[in-house]
Write a structure and sequence with these properties.
The complex is a heterodimer. By secondary structure, chain A is an alpha+beta fold. Chain A is built from 20 helices and 31 strands. Chain A has 4 domains: 189 residues, Aldehyde Oxidoreductase, domain 3 (Alpha-Beta Complex); 140 residues, Aldehyde Oxidoreductase, domain 4 (2-Layer Sandwich), CATH 3.30.365; 181 residues, Aldehyde Oxidoreductase, domain 4 (2-Layer Sandwich); 138 residues, Aldehyde oxidase/xanthine dehydrogenase, molybdopterin binding domain (Aldehyde Oxidoreductase, domain 4). The mean pLDDT of chain A is 96. Helices cover 18% and strands 29% of the residues of chain B. In chain B, the strands form 2 sheets. Chain B has a 5-stranded mixed sheet, covered by helices on one side. A two-stranded antiparallel ribbon of chain B has the order 3-4. The chains are: A alpha+beta, B alpha+beta.
């Protein structure tokens, strides 16, 4: 084990040394990002372009009795008004792409433009195209919609009651036993995961802790709002420029929703100002496309912040119950969890992933987990960094902390004793491959923060908490095309939207494999016509999967160069060796640059390419430590010091890994302490602005210390594990455990906002 | 013989049995024989000749997605699981 302390601690559990991987080159997109030259969706402006706007429901739950757009259509400058009647009937078609395959397209279609009923405050009802935004906004006021307002149901525990208002009248629960409920309800699906004998496990326990937790709805909070420009040509070709985590996914959704051939849809991914899971599905793109088709003009649309908060896909609120049994020596004997997540206005929450993460850091041989996907009158929820894991592991890591306190066992030692490791059980999954939870916990134990006693201050309530987190990571499909230029440089086309700096981390893997300098690779995020199938930038998959495609493409290019040189050198291609970027055989040698020149003279221009669907993603663990101070008067919690430890497998570009870790912590701290959708009893969202929806600023968090642990993923040639999601998982539990250390309070609702902490302190007194 | 781990909700079709040994050269063979041995189980895994959307199969620790043609070793281990996305 060697510790690299040049920049931030990195603890390697391997002996590999690389030339490019692990270095800190200047990022390829750095200059254009800091000079403002980078092009985002809103920078697209086309000749004859119209502007679109969306009419949104003022009600959380209502039947649409009529829509009369005649006054809007008569307004000068208005070119078209569309409603759900303009969308094709999807019938019984199921979604085939994206992150949630197998869901009825009819729900996605109805979420684009309400069909018959509105399911949440802000639900899109109609859209207008006009010569400018102001006329479009005026036209919205002239659309007359007659509603029959219905009773809303906002929380999962209310929506699951037998007498709750049913939001989707033909929704029948898909029950865990494979049957379908006979009566409609708001419970879209039940899930059940079980291993071992949970009753016997609890019978063995000396201590059982059983707690309930609840959650508000939280938004991803990306800075760039959704936008889309569509140009539907007369020959049927549809061109779309948008801010999305996946151009190919948007293309598939447009094909599904508009019943249009996929070959005629061309999606151009623009630079993206954040997504975090919230931009893995379409919102404006189908509307802009329909309006363009109807008007014969390009149509540009952009949401404002209120639209984003009201009508895109936040992460669910809901309920989690966790019950864990342990023996007096601190051995976990059993676990039970029950999770009910709000799906929002249509089925499909992330509860299944939450169920499978809830006990993931631990080797538990007896466990049972039940999950419920529940429709409520809120926006259709969607993925947010490690979707479902933060809720689930906030609950279980809080219970673990309570167990440690009750048994007077060090929380690090408890976690080390019970930690999941290679070969151990995973709920409903194959046994763990090589994983790094123990290594992360050891690094946390040895960290400067854990080894430094908490600084006390007279009259201040301060505490320290620790928590683990797990996320699966995903593989999906990625493609790259690499073109060797005559000067030895490489143009690298890849299909993954670059959110976290992945064009550089992918290019670095290509450069490492081909043996060239990173400066000789020019990575480009390509559109759907220019590169092979590439799934969303999500699931922490791009550096892993697109990086693997780049590695494979570099090998493909190496083979082609060797074949070209074999002709020139009159040797067999398989006799040519490649080391450190130099090809050699029979006394001949050429660097990649020299080979490119030689091959150019022969008219040979190698193009390496690869499409890959990797199968061994490797899970990611993180361990976080939080020191907090609780203001007894106001209930405000201040994070004083924070250390994030994470297994990155092998960190391709350490600054990006550290950035993901720090970004995840900031979002997790915001989730822990402030962020929450606030609704009135009628289901109106009351805080649809970033003034009232309180995200952390730089003033709210301390410097976040990072420790990268490298336990290579055996499923990747360079050992890469995804790093983007797991750092959001531990913060709420780490902060909650620190609050308990400071005050003795066990907080059971996120966010642990000042009023809630203040109320809990008052009740405690 | 391959070992197939039956998802908890589907054990109603196997009388509660959590793990079965079954012979097959591909995942499709396994599904066909599961249906033959436990009527109704195959239908919960496959629809119109394909693994149901939203399901994935792991073979010997590798997530092979919905590829029913995946070849098996004599002692392969299979898990049918719900597909995951990410953020």
């Amino acid at each position: 084990m060697a510790i690299d302390t040049r920049v931030a601690p990195k603890i390697k559990h391997h002996d590999e040394e690389y030339k490019v991987i692990g270095t800190r080159p200047i990022r390829h997109d750095g200059l254009e990002k800091v000079t403002g030259e980078a092009r985002y969706g809103s920078d697209i402006n086309l000749p004859g372009q119209l502007h679109g706007k969306v009419l949104r429901s003022p009600h959380a739950h209502a039947r649409i009795l009529s829509i009369d757009a005649s006054r809007a259509q008569a307004l000068d400058g208005v070119s078209a008004v569309i409603t759900s009647a303009d969308l094709p009937d999807p019938g019984d078609k199921l979604t085939t792409g994206g992150e949630a395959p197998g869901l009825p397209v009819k729900f996605k279609s109805a979420n684009m433009l309400a069909r018959g009923k509105v399911h949440y405050h802000g639900h899109a009802v109609a859209a207008v195209a006009a010569t400018n935004q102001h006329i479009a906004a005026e036209a919205l006021k002239l659309i007359d919609v007659e509603y029959e307002v219905l009773e809303p149901v906002l929380e999962v525990w209310d929506a699951m009651k037998p007498d709750a208002p049913v939001i989707i009248e033909d929704l029948y629960t898909a029950k865990a036993d494979g049957t379908t409920a006979e009566e409609p309800s708001n419970v879209a699906a039940e899930m059940l995961y079980e291993v071992g004998d949970v009753d016997a496990g609890f019978a063995e326990a000396d201590l059982v802790v059983d707690r309930e937790f609840t959650f508000g709805v939280v938004h991803q909070g990306y800075i760039e709002t959704h936008n889309a420009t569509a140009n539907w040509l007369k020959d049927g070709h549809l061109h779309v420029w948008c801010s999305s985590q996946g151009a190919f996914t948007i293309r598939q959704e447009l094909a599904d929703l508009l019943n249009h051939p996929i070959t005629k849809i061309h999606v151009v991914p623009m630079e993206i100002g954040g997504g975090f899971g919230g931009k893995t599905t379409a919102y404006l793109e189908p509307l802009a496309a329909l309006l363009s088709q109807q008007t014969g003009h390009p149509v540009k649309m952009a949401m404002d912040r209120a639209d984003v908060l009201k009508a895109t896909g936040p992460t669910p609120g809901g309920y989690v119950r966790v019950k864990m049994g342990v023996t007096n020596d601190g051995t976990i004997t059993a676990g039970y969890a029950n999770l009910a997540f709000d799906a929002g206005g249509y089925p499909g929450s992330v509860v299944g992933a939450g169920c499978r993460c809830v006990f993931a850091p631990y080797n538990m041989t007896n466990a049972k987990v039940e999950g419920f996907d529940v429709v409520v009158n809120k926006p259709k929820t969607h993925a947010y960094r490690a979707p479902g894991a933060t809720h689930a592991e906030f609950a279980s890591e809080t219970v673990v902390d309570e167990i440690c306190r009750t048994l007077d066992i060090d929380p690090v030692e408890f976690r080390l004793k019970n930690s999941a490791k290679e070969g151990d059980w995973q709920l409903a999954m194959p046994p763990y491959p090589r994983i790094g939870h123990i290594e992360c916990m050891e690094a946390a134990r040895d960290s400067a923060q854990w080894q430094t006693p908490l600084e006390t201050a007279p009259g201040k309530k301060r505490g320290r908490g620790i928590a683990s987190g797990f996320w699966f990571n995903i593989g999906f499909t990625s493609s790259v095309i690499a073109k060797l230029n005559s000067d030895g440089s490489v143009t690298l086309l890849e299909g993954s939207t670059d959110i976290g700096g992945t064009r550089t981390s992918v290019a670095m893997q290509f450069a490492e494999t081909l043996g060239i300098a990173i400066e000789d690779v020019d990575p480009i995020v390509a559109d759907t016509d220019s590169v092979g199938q590439t799934d969303v930038t999500g699931g922490s998959r791009v550096t892993f999967a697109t990086g693997l495609a780049a590695h494979n493409a570099a090998n493909d290019m190496k083979d082609q160069i060797a074949e070209g040189l074999a002709d020139l050198w009159d040797v067999a291609a398989d006799s040519i060796t490649h080391a450190d970027g130099t090809f050699s055989a029979n006394g001949n040698s050429a660097t990649v640059r020299e080979a490119a020149g030689l091959l150019e003279e022969e008219g040979v221009f190698p193009i390496g390419k690869n499409t890959v669907t990797p199968t061994r993603e490797g899970g990611a663990f993180a361990v976080h430590i939080a020191d907090v101070e609780v203001d007894e008067e106001t209930g405000k919690v201040e994070v004083l010091r924070y250390t994030a430890v994470q297994d990155a497998g092998v960190a391709i570009y350490p600054p990006y890994v550290e950035g993901q870790m720090q970004g995840g912590v900031v979002q997790g701290v915001g989730w822990a302490l402030n962020e929450e959708y606030v609704y009135d009893d009628d289901g109106h969202l009351l805080n649809a602005s970033l003034l009232d929806y309180r995200m952390p600023t730089a003033l709210d968090v301390p410097n976040i210390e990072t420790i990268i642990v490298e336990v290579p993923n055996p499923g990747h040639p360079y050992g890469v594990r995804g790093v983007g999601e797991v750092p959001i998982v531990p913060p709420p539990a780490a902060v909650a455990n620190a609050i308990h250390d400071a005050t003795g309070l066990r907080m059971s609702h996120l966010p642990m906002s000042p009023p809630r902490v203040q109320a809990a302190l008052a009740a405690q007194a | 013989m391959a070992t197939v781990h039956i998802p908890t909700p589907m054990r109603v079709a196997t009388d509660g049995v959590a793990r079965v040994e079954i012979e097959g050269a591909t995942v499709r063979d396994i599904v066909d024989r599961l249906e033959a041995n436990y009527p109704g189980l195959g239908g919960r895994l496959v629809e119109d000749g394909q693994l149901r959307p939203g399901l994935s199969v792991f073979v010997d620790g590798a997530n092979v997605g919905r590829r029913l043609r995946t070849k098996l070793q004599p002692d392969s281990e299979l898990f049918f699981v719900e597909a995951l996305g990410g953020g």
